[in-house]
Design brief:
The chain is built from 15 helices and 13 strands. The longest helix is centred in the N-terminal third of the chain and has 21 residues. The two termini are 28 Å apart.
């Protein structure tokens, strides 16, 4: 993975110290991987001050099966040892989700702290608050202990903050809310054409939790007959199963399954889209929504997780409760039939992106935490400062 310099930066030699960004460095890492990768993409080789550090990827999962993932994790722990012995490793920024991610990252956190390496824990999990109560009591206690070790616990919003403070008993003073950021669009937006076929887009792992079946059932509701549109599903998961579901429901001509899509492919799809639709039952703060805002794409989604704390119904998005197929159909038809509503969502979304979700702004927030916890900040913080005028 190559990190490219942001516009307006000056290339210089790499700094001597570094910070590991720990997560699965494969597509299996999902949104957590994308957040970590965006941090490295934001890192620019600029005139680096003495207290800056290079961000480096630390793969904790790999792309293979369970046995192979153990080997990758063991390799990651050895990299911590080498970094500690060299004196160059300033700290580890651990990105954590739920299920097996909780246990793998716990091993990284414990190993780092045993070696005296400071840790920042970045919690991305949308479902940890459901997963944690189902754990046996000893594992719950172990989880609380692991969360007590990092210097700082970064969360996406108030919902996650309440969970880690009230359930995991992390002191409020060590919990920080940092909203994710995404890069500015790289593909020019298509020009609107009044009589063009409208393009709806779903991006994510195809699953019931993401509301994919609900979305397919939505297309069978009355009111779509005179509308010209195509719904594209971009993502992995049970693609064949949902293709069969579309045929069973008789909506196969209205949908297209693009399969797993890399960042450049999603950028192309987003530039062509009119509406991003994400009827999920559970989320944190999906990056795809932030990417839609950046691209001026109207958003129709469920008000779950941290979404209602950053978006406003009818202003920056249209909310439909998860599982409300009739409501989703009515809302999609409303946005498709009312160009002014679509333009309002597009315009307000882009303004919100510029204010709150730009990548330089996100990187600067993380860099401040690194500076306080590790004594150094990532060199990309300089790039963010150079480019702040573009996103203010």
């Amino acid at each position: 993975m190559r990190s490219e310099a942001l516009p307006g930066t000056v290339i210089s030699p790499l700094p001597d110290r570094y910070i590991f960004i720990a997560c699965p460095w494969t597509a299996k890492g999902g949104g957590m991987f994308k957040v970590a990768d965006y941090l490295l993409q934001a890192q620019a080789k600029v005139a680096v001050p003495k207290n800056a550090a290079q961000l480096r990827a630390l793969d904790t999962r790999g792309g293979g099966g369970a046995v192979y993932s153990l080997w990758v994790l063991a390799t990651a722990l050895m990299q911590l040892v080498r970094g500690r012995l060299s004196g160059r490793l300033a700290g580890v920024h651990v990105n954590m989700a739920e299920r097996l991610s909780l246990f793998r990252k716990s091993a990284v956190i414990v190993a780092a702290r045993l070696m005296g390496i400071p840790v920042v824990l970045h919690l991305h999990a949308a479902q940890l608050h459901h997963f944690y109560p189902r754990l046996p009591k000893p594992l719950q206690a172990l989880t609380r202990w692991v969360f007590s070790l990092p210097e700082s616990c970064v969360v996406l919003g108030k919902t996650a903050e309440r969970f880690v403070v009230e359930e995991l008993r992390v002191p409020q003073s060590r919990v920080e809310i940092v909203i994710n950021g995404v890069p500015a669009p790289t593909v020019p937006r298509r020009k609107p054409v009044n009589d063009a076929v409208r393009r709806l887009l779903f991006v994510g792992n195809l699953s019931e939790r993401k509301g994919v079946s609900d979305l397919l059932h939505t297309l069978t509701r009355p009111g779509f007959e005179d509308l010209e549109f195509e719904l594209v599903f971009a993502g992995g998961g049970d693609v064949q199963g949902y293709q069969a579901k579309a045929r069973e429901l008789g909506v196969e001509k209205l949908v297209r399954f693009a399969g797993w899509s890399e960042q450049a492919e999603v950028a192309q799809l987003m530039a062509q889209a009119d509406i991003l639709v994400l009827p999920s039952y559970d989320e944190g703060l999906p990056l795809v929504i932030l990417e839609a805002l950046a691209n001026g794409v109207a958003v129709v989604c469920s008000p779950v997780g941290e979404i209602p704390s950053v978006l406003r119904h009818g202003v920056t998005a249209c909310f439909v409760h998860a599982g409300d197929v009739n409501g989703l159909a009515a809302t999609l038809q409303q946005v498709l039939r009312q160009p002014e509503l679509m333009r309002t969502l597009e315009r307000n979304g882009q303004e919100l992106y510029a204010q709150s979700f730009s990548l330089p702004r996100f990187f600067s927030s993380i860099a401040r935490i690194h500076k306080r916890c590790f004594g150094v900040s990532g060199q990309g913080a300089v790039a963010a400062a150079v480019n702040k005028d573009d996103t203010s």
